[in-house]
Amino acid sequence: MAMVATLFAVKNTSIKFSYLCTGAVGLAILSSGAAWLAILLAFGFCFHLWQAFERNSWSMIITSAVSGLLFVVLFSAHLLMDVPLFWVVVAIILLAVVGLMSEEEEPKVEDSHNINEPEPYQDDSPLAAFADKQQLRQGYYCWCKEKQLEAALVIVRLEGFEQVNQHIGRDFGDLLLAQSANRIKDLLNNDNVIDLGGQEKLAHLGGLNFAFICSLAVHKHSHEHIIEQIIGATLKPFNVANCTVEVKARASYVNCDEQDANFDNLVSCAYLALDSQPKKAVVVYHQQMMVEQLEQQARLKELANIDFVSELELYFQPIIRNDDGQIEFLELLLRWQHPQQGILSAHRFIDDIHIAGLAYPLAKFVIERAAELAMALRIEGIAIPLSINLFGPEMLNEEFVEFVDSVVSEHNLQHGDLIVECPLHIFTDLDNKGRAMIARLNNIGLKICVDGLGNNPIVLSKLPNLAVEYIKVAPSLTADFSNQNNIRSLVGGMVEMHNQQNTKVIFEGVETLDQLKFVKSLKAHAAQGYYFGHPLSSIGLMSWLKQWQAHQTQ
After folding, report:
1. Average pLDDT score over the chain
2. pLDDT tens digits for range 184-238
3. For the purposes of burial, counting CB atoms within 10 Å of the CB of 362, is it exposed (0-12), middle (13-18) or buried (19 or more)?
């Protein structure tokens, strides 16, 4: 009965025939009890183990090996201890279970490696004509059997369909997705792209994700050339429902010699590469990405029980005026005293803070700690402002602004004692509510500084509308001195524009005297960088300031 159930479940013809023969031998042993039949049964177990290795299924390998070992034990007991021969049939029953497991494990593997993948489209969708993930898997393993492992798995993700589905409708979105996929498919008519069966070379993995396998045996960079063509083709506008819409594509690839050539591991690695750098059009998987993912998972577990007071600390770095060399203000920089990795700067874990849902509590902690330091400076008669960094939109809500107001009042801070630094993208996308929150922070007494000018593209027409006290220019705009004339004309124009708006421009990343001279030549207000000193713990802030003041008076 076990063999009958297995024969219905197994789809592979050779394995099905093997099960039939093994079942027949088992019935013969039960009816006749002839010991020589055990030799045939041993060959059957060896064949099953060989098939398990061919299919690269660990569950099938382990269970086949266990059933074979059980047969050896039972047959040895028959020879040495006169145990009835029919007991070896127990090993055959266990082998039948292997057949059921090997056919049922595929969807489980797919689910475990693609938790975040969208649900696949229904059979009546325009994408039903494309190969699916199972066909891609089979095509990959057929390729591996030919010992031609020099290939790359490429995943292409199409973007820009959210607005299409919202404004035009899901049906038109599906039609547009199919058109995009057909454009990709037309570009794969290449001998280097592996055929998945029926002349199909492109597989739909679900949602907006597609994949193909490209051989690297002839041309080492053929997959890169194909990806470049795909990205270029998807940029051409589509006409759907009398509307012209634009779609863009991103891609990642992983060499098939990675992860022991296991298909599901390769797909997971390609997805990891695609998700790890969402701003890049083409991402190559490398082992460090897996290390970084494991480190992030470990940090998220640690952040679940983090104690801000004992584990987080504020460091400081001065911003120096260019005209008189005095301190304009001190920037407070967040550091995590990690028990294993040492002192981590904020950019190493701030994304994890947002993922863990700790952005708002952390912002409150930083505000309170900065207010305490500002009050201590005022008590000592030191009139130097402190700036804090807020990395997300948590500042632009009613509750946070009210909290800031209460902290400022509680510590008797004066106007300008605290400065709030925020990334540029927050200000360029402000709505009416956000502008109102910025105005309230100004009324409370906090000055606003825009951070990161030059890190990301920006519409220049938006720059004059940033009514803030300071704006910081990223180190990337002044790091390369090979084209100083081009940099001078570009950055100098922005500095002059902000000077006319009474916004003070600060250059970050000044590490050498030549950089400082270049910055001063642009008529910037101040500079910041390692040239003036590395970040130091705020525990020694008072003593450092006294030494600085003593040095300036000499």
Report:
1. 78
2. 888 888 888 888 877 788 998 888 899 999 888 788 888 889 988 888 887 666 5
3. buried
Range in 109-123, 452-466, 523-537 the model is least confident about: 109-123
Distance of CA 270 to the CA centre of its chain: 11
d(CA 486, CA 450): 24
**Which pLDDT score is estimated for 327?**
94
Rounded distance between C-alpha atoms, residue 346 and residue 361, angstroms: 15
Q: What is the SS3 assignment for 75-132?
A: HHHHHHHCCCHHHHHHHHHHHHHHHHHHHHHHHHHHHHHCCCCCCCCCCCCHHHHCEC
Q: What is the pLDDT of residue 105?
A: 42
First to last CA, the chain: 98
3-state secondary structure of 38: helix
Question: What are the tokens at 387?
Answer: 């700036």
DSSP 350-397: HHHHHHTT-HHHHHHHHHHHHHHHHHHHHHTT----EEEE--SGGGSS
Q: Which two tokens stand for residue 66?
A: 């266990």
pTM, full prediction: 0.59
pLDDT tens sequence across 382-434: 889 999 988 766 667 888 889 999 999 999 999 999 999 988 877 777 777 87
Beta bridge partner(s), residue 506: 472, 526
Integer Cα distance of 89 and 45 in angstroms: 12
Residue that is written with structure tokens 């020099």 in the block: 150
Q: Count CA within 13 A, CB hemisphere, residue 70.
A: 15
Q: Which residue is listed with tokens 């070379």?
A: 201
Q: Are the beta carbons of 118 and 178 closer than 8 angstroms?
A: no
Q: Which whole number is the average pLDDT over 254-281? A: 83
Q: Could you give the 3-state DSSP secondary structure of residue 254?
A: strand
Distances (CA, A) of 314 to 147, 377, 445: 56, 15, 22
Burial (CB count within 10 angstroms: exposed 0-12, middle 13-18, buried 19+), residue 33: exposed
* Phi-psi category of residue 344: left, alpha or beta, with phi > 0 → left and psi -120 to 50 → alpha: beta
Among 450, 448, 385, 390, which Cα is nearest to 414's? 385
**pLDDT for res 453:** 81
In 3D space, the residue among 104, 113, 12, 114 whose CA is nearest the CA of residue 55 turns out to be: 12
Task: Report which of residues 241 and 36 the model is more confident about.
Answer: 36
Task: Classify residue 379 by burial, with Cβ atoms within 10 Å: 0-12, 13-18, 19+.
Answer: exposed
Q: Give the DSSP H/E element, type plus range, for residue 334.
A: strand 327-338
- The pLDDT of residue 121: 39
